[in-house]
Amino acid sequence: MNNPKDLVSTIADLNRQGYTHEFRIKNKQLFSDQLNKGFGMEAFNIDDSYTFSTGVENDGSELLFAITLMGENIKGFLVDAYSALETVEASEVREKFNANNAHIHHLSDAESKYGLPRVKKEVFNKSHGRYIFRIGFPDFPTCPFGNKFEALGWDTKDEKYVWLVSSIIKDNRLVRKQY
Fold first, then answer.
1. 64 shares its domain with 139
2. How many angstroms separate the first and last alpha carbons of the chain?
3. How far apart are CA 40 and CA 54, in angstroms?
4. Closest alpha carbon to 133 in 146, 115, 151
5. 61, 77, 106: which is the final residue of a domain?
6. Contacts for 114 with CB less than 8 Å, ≥ 6 apart
7. What confidence tens digit (pLDDT) does each residue in 55-81 have?
8. Number of other CB atoms surrounding residue 125 within 10 Å
9. 173 phi and psi, to 5 degrees?
């Protein structure tokens, strides 16, 4: 793929190339909601990978992996917008994806992301108690990829969902609240 512009357009390009299944990591496996099935790390190849940096010094990076299930002739992608792969307990999962994270593409420093106000690290540092990380809440806004968000930032002052850059999500001062 030549000169990808952003995550959404790159996914659209991958879809045109046959990468139509959306995958995620669940129970230490690559999981497809469409197939309602999980696959071990040995069952797939990572054909390509992209890192999109949307902030200063990788403050808001997203990872995109183009994936082919071996023997199944099924192609898809995995988006890691919250650096969730870094927190997966299974080292074999982290190792497989980290070894294939090669292409770096820089994007503009947008003030919003997926229609949500984007909170940068310097704003969080001034008032870190204002923001929390909600996990599994049923009132999440619609995901632009047609799925559901599993976790999002919440602004306790303005009482609305926000997009927290990756460095905030990695910050141990950020309170995590499970539904």
1. no
2. 39
3. 31
4. 151
5. 106
6. 143, 144, 163
7. 544 455 677 888 999 888 899 998 876
8. 12
9. -80, -20
